[in-house]
Design goal:
Helix 5 runs parallel beside helix 20. The protein is 48% helix and 11% strand. The chain contains 20 helices and 12 strands. The chain has an 8-stranded parallel β-sheet with strand order 4-11-10-9-8-7-6-5. It is of the alpha/beta class. The longest helix is centred in the C-terminal third of the chain and has 33 residues. Strand 9, helix 18 and strand 10 form a beta-alpha-beta unit. The structure holds ligand FNR. The site of ligand FNR has 22 residues, from helix 3.
Length: 415
């Protein structure tokens, strides 16, 4: 109502309110590498399409004549009251979309009152992001590295920086088959972007120095970069301060990128290993990337405090089920024992409503915050997040529910 009212007096939104227009304009404003990195799904994009199709399988049935003057969209999670059922999903390398990256995310999310899940591949060290967040609730998303000491160091830093939960992403032991990124030869990492969390870590710094002292032959074995690639890197490095051709020229940044590539993928993880993490932190541990009900059961057996149903925005397994299609089975098995969060494909409040109706406790906004960031920096992020909250409030009003708890399975029907 505020937006309509302000509009009468000439107010214009900072970024498009329509998610489709926002998406189109944001990608049009990005460099080809940024567009590819943010937009791409795995393979031919089937899973990304399935994410959207899954929402089309459900329809909301509005109820009339219910007093909706007092509405409350707050929820409780891990003993804390959150203003709304929205969090921002962890998205790495946000500096591709805007040079201020996660600092702008933090400013925007704080202004909108939305908690942030800080990515292990965030563009700035978590301490700086948390300083921008002030009192705003934040969690830390962990990619479980090959180096246990590094994992422990990241967890310790997250605790010290005031993160109140750990989200362990399980679905990215390796990066998915992202064809557009492959065609562009994965320039973001060639330029050392998205490793600020590591390069600011004392354990990682030690690993890099060890590599500089004992260089492997890897670097020499690699073909020299094509002249075209060097030219475009030079151009891009002017666009994004902080990333420079040094990655190709000086031993230290190059060693940092190589160390990152070495420690990132961890294929030997099994459920038993969660006990190791459990012993090292008292923060609630959520696992992100659950799709199968049996995995939800195993996660509970191994003591997790929460589950995030997600397929990483369709970026990992090509041909996988839509994330919302996986939600009911997981909710069934979990049966209220721990919170079940949801992401992958949420583009408007109706999507959030359907996920909540199917049993999600909260939902994470993914790519849309990056689109807002690309077009409007912190203001763009703030507006995108406020839009979700405002639209959900209106949606609740018009469907006759006054609290998140009232968004039950009875509010939707199969399409
Ligand atoms: C991601 N995602 C992700 N997840 C994670 O746990 N750590 C990360 O660093 C990233 N990085 C990342 C980068 C980009 C560009 C995207 C699009 C996604 C996955 C993210 O948290 C979330 O699961 C998806 O974004 C949800 O899908 P939609 O709604 O964005 O399509």
């Amino acid at each position: 109502a505020q937006i309509y009212r302000r509009g009468v007096f000439g107010y214009r939104p900072a970024v498009p309110v329509s998610p489709d227009v926002l998406e189109t304009k944001a990608y049009a404003a990005m460099s080809p590498t940024a567009r590819s990195y943010i937009h791409t799904g795995a393979g031919r994009g089937d899973t990304m399409s399935a994410n959207r199709d899954a929402f089309d399988q459900w329809r909301i049935v509005p109820r009339m004549m219910r007093d909706t003057q007092q509405r409350d969209q707050s929820i409780e999670l891990f003993g804390r009251r959150l203003d709304s059922p929205f969090l921002t999903a962890p998205i790495g390398v946000s500096e591709m979309a805007h040079p201020d990256g996660d600092l702008a995310l933090a400013r925007g999310a704080r202004a909108a009152g939305v908690p942030v899940i800080i990515s292990t591949q965030a563009s700035q060290p978590m301490e700086d992001i948390c300083a921008e967040l002030g009192d705003q609730e934040r969690w830390y998303q962990l990619y479980w590295s090959k180096d246990d000491e590094l994992v422990e160091s990241l967890v310790r830093r997250a605790e010290r920086a005031g993160c109140t939960a750990l989200v362990v992403t399980l679905d990215t032991t390796l990066l998915g088959w992202r064809v557009e990124d492959l065609d562009l030869a994965w320039l973001p990492f060639a330029r050392g972007m998205g490793i600020a969390q590591y390069t600011s870590d004392p354990v990682f710094q030690r690993l890099v120095q060890e590599r500089v002292a004992n260089p492997t032959n890897e670097t020499d074995d690699q073909p020299r970069p094509r002249p075209g690639a060097v030219r475009s890197l030079a151009k891009l490095s002017r666009t994004y301060p902080g990333s420079t051709l040094d990655n190709l020229r000086s031993p230290e940044p190059r060693a940092a990128v190589e160390t990152f590539l070495d420690v990132f993928s961890r294929l030997d993880l099994t459920w038993e290993r969660l006990a190791w993490l459990r012993e090292r932190t008292s923060l609630p541990i959520l696992v992100k990337g659950i799709q199968h009900p049996d995995d939800a059961e195993l996660a509970l057996e191994h003591g997790v405090d929460g589950i995030v149903v997600s397929n990483h925005g369709g970026r990992q397994v090509d041909g996988a089920i839509g994330s919302l299609a996986a939600l009911p089975g997981v909710v069934d098995v979990v049966a209220g024992r721990v919170p079940v969060l949801f992401d992958s494909g949420i583009r408007c409040a109706a999507d959030a409503f359907k996920a909540l109706a199917l049993g999600a406790t909260a939902v994470c906004i993914g790519r849309p915050w990056v689109w807002g960031l690309a077009l409007g920096g912190a203001d763009g992020v703030q507006q995108v997040l406020e839009t979700y909250r405002a639209e959900l409030d209106l949606q609740m009003n018009l469907t006759g529910v006054t609290s998140i708890g009232e968004i039950t399975p009875e509010t939707i029907v199969p399409a």
